[in-house]
Amino acid sequence: MKFLEKLTSKKGQVSMEIGILVAAAVAVAAIAAYFYAQNVKSAGDRTQGVANDTIDSMNVSGTYNISKL
């Protein structure tokens, strides 16, 4: 219970330390969210490009095979 006594102390130092830790955690979470959003956006663009390439390959292959009939 000594830990709880420190949290409620009148000095304010522990409160400030906890505040700094919370602020650092929020900053890290914001940076991680930014990089996650950037990764999701670029993954969508790459997926669209791969899908279009696959469709084009199937079109060429299908046209070639139909012309052989």
TrEMBL record:
It comes from the Archaea. It is found in: Cell surface; Fimbrium; Secreted. The keyword Transmembrane applies. Keywords: Fimbrium, Membrane, Secreted, Transmembrane, Transmembrane helix. Its main location: other. GO terms for cellular component: cell surface; extracellular region. The chain crosses the membrane at residues 20-37. This is Class III signal peptide.
